[in-house]
Amino acid sequence: MITSITILLLFAATIYIFMQQAQFGKRPSGERLELIKKSPNYRNGSFQNLSYTPDLTEGASIFSVMKEFLLNDNKSKKPSQKIPTIKTDLLQLDPTENTVVWFGHSSYFIQIDGKKILVDPVLSGSASPLSFTNKAFDGTSIYTTDDFPEIDYLFISHDHWDHLDYKTIMKLKPKINTIITGLGTGAHFEHWGFDTNTIIEKDWNETFTLEDGFTVYTVPARHFSGRSFIRKKALWTSFVLKTPTSKLFIGGDSGYDSHFAEIGKQFGPFDLAFLENGQYDKSWKYIHMTPNEVLQAAIDLNVKSLFPVHSSKFVLANHDWNEPLSKITALSKATDIHLITPLIGEKILLSEKKDFPKWWEFSN
Q1: Taking each helix axis from N to C terminus, what angle separates 259-267 and 291-301, rounded to the nearest 10 degrees?
Q2: Helix, strand, coil % (nearest 5) of the chain?
Q3: Cβ contacts of residue 256 below 8 Å, gap of 6+?
Q4: What letter does residue 135 receive in the DSSP assignment?
Q5: Strand 176-182 relative to strand 151-155: parallel, antiparallel, unpaired?
Q6: What whole-number distance in Å separates Cα of residue 343 and Cα of residue 131?
């Protein structure tokens, strides 16, 4: 008995020490926490979704989810060969062009109306505090932080490891001018040595103006946050970005709900929407969307072009790695929405309407 207790105590101590690393960030405290407590979306010590949103579907448990994920023998969860990519020189882009470059999963670069924007960059090769787990697919890690120009605006939708990567952020630190995120997430950046004057943290349904005709509206998502066992201390969010020439929806992780229609009524139509399409499962249907729901969300938002992200780099669910893109492509044919499905690293002109090859279709 004494031996067992000793082992358990040592194990607990090891976990505690491990989680004191800087990469786990910090929970909000002090003035930041007092501001959070005034939010209508913060109740009982945590941020809340607009609708009742359990992390897991009724009948599912952490044990059943882990068992299915670990014992699932679906070899198609990972590609059988190197994913095809194109590397665009971000340092030599024509500054007059409005472009998008996707880096896989939910990381992408936008150059629009003279501003350079980066969203949820994860470039370290892993979406986990343990670098040997949740590793990126072969061929997808073609960019490093050295490949990036100065970033005017860094958008962070929430603090999960596949959206906020400590190694990437620290290497990009000298190039980041302004950080835009949800309430509470700034605690991580302040802990990591960022100047608080460069951090803009907002609640849902807030508006602020940037330079040169850029305006940001923070809008709801249906998800959760947390970099450890403690969740929902920082806000998860999506963004509406109005520029001098365009209106973009920058979507964070979200389950489907009525908020998409509300955002569409208030801000639509959108020239382009980035929506999370991947890492869905029957066991967590409230916090991620299936491709059918992604398309419906795009319709609700009243979008002209849809860029599906959150796939093609990491295994975070049980579906085939290429299922999200295959399904959304098939479904979109019944609509007038222009679907954007480029190769990782491919430069896309926002003014261009083109058909994309189904690069994800190769035999497993």
Answers
A1: 30
A2: 25, 20, 50
A3: 222, 289, 293, 296, 297
A4: B
A5: parallel
A6: 25
What are 268-297's pLDDT values in tens digits? 999 999 999 999 999 999 999 999 999 999
Q: Above 80 in pLDDT, residue 141? A: yes
Q: Mapping DSSP to helix (H, G, I), strand (E, B) and coil, where does residue 247 land? A: strand
| DSSP 3-state of 22 | helix
Mapped onto helix, strand or coil, the DSSP state of residue 207 is strand
One-letter amino acid at 10 equals L
pLDDT score, position 288 = 98
What is d(CA 167, CA 185) in angstroms, rounded to the nearest whole number? 16
* Helices 291-301 + 323-332 axis angle, to 10: 50
Residue with tokens 């480029």: 342
The pLDDT tens digits of the residues spanning 55-112 come to 999 998 988 988 888 888 788 999 999 999 999 999 999 999 999 999 999 999 999 9
CB of 143 closer than 8 Å to CB of 168? no
